[in-house]
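Researcher: I need the complex structure. Ligand is X2X. Inputs:
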Amino acid sequence: MTTTRRTMLLGTGTLALCAAFHTRVHAADFTYKLANNLPLTHPLNIRLAEAAAGILEESGGRMKINIFPSSQLGNDTETLSQVRNGATEFFSLSPLILSTLVPQAAISGIGFAFPDYATVWKAMDGELGAYARAEIEKKGLVPMEKIWDNGFRQITSSNLAINTPEDLKGFKIRVPPSKLWQSMFSAFGAAPTTINFAEVYTALSTGIVDGQENPLAIASTAKLYEVQKNCAMTNHMWDGFWMLANKKAWERLPDDLREITAKHLNTSALSQRTDVAKVNDTVREELTKSGMTFTDPDKTAFRDTLRQAGFYEEWKGKFGDEAWAILEKAVGVSLT
Ligand code: X2X
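Model: Output:
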């Protein structure tokens, strides 16, 4: 019996030693968190998982990124603070929400500025994107070069079918935390309420607001069709996600890990753009089967309403001539 116990003890000790050794050899040099507000099934999270796997492999296990979807680390306002103070190392965020810290970043979200995706990517991978990234860097965050796609936004509602801008008068709509969003829906005469995405489903299901606006990929993956009946295809603005890093955490990485990480995040961003475009093209049929009714309003009427309300003049003044000129050059028309 004594012998058996000794053997067992020895066995346990050896196992513990092996485990410690194993951990030491295989623990990553850097384990970073990456937060976002979207469900795991959204193309952003699918491609982020791919990027994280690629980074782990190419770094020989030295760089590990753990992804926290669905606002698990906090809502967007809270997570923006975390990525600033280093509690979270990476965070993907809409340029418009980021404008609470970097006002100029919102310029890509001006209503009806981009006619199509070709114009969006040319601008965001070109001069307009470079301008926004330089502004973001001034505030101490490091944006990856390629912006991820959210998509062209559509308006959903629980009761009202939206066909004209007049239908938006007094409409209780949720908007993300950003002055530009507030301003745009106020210009339509709606009653916008700021709510973080983490609380949107509940706000819709309890009737705190009657509607919201988001690309179809979000209406689908976040199951907003369960609490929204109608969808107006307004394409009223394009929205994306800057992949932001905390500056100190980024600079702590050796050159090769920075390179590997940026390469995979940027490559996966490009694949994710294709995924989102596909989803947004095909998901309307699925959403219809789930019980949503679609309308296709005349977009020009919405844009004219904004123009008449002085929306473009006001924001041209806020962004300033330099930024506005870069935007107009990118979209090829005068917006005011
Ligand atoms: O909050 C939203 O509506 C969302 C998910 O589209 C953004 O992050 C801007």
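Model: Summary of the prediction. Residues 255-289 form the longest helix (35 residues).
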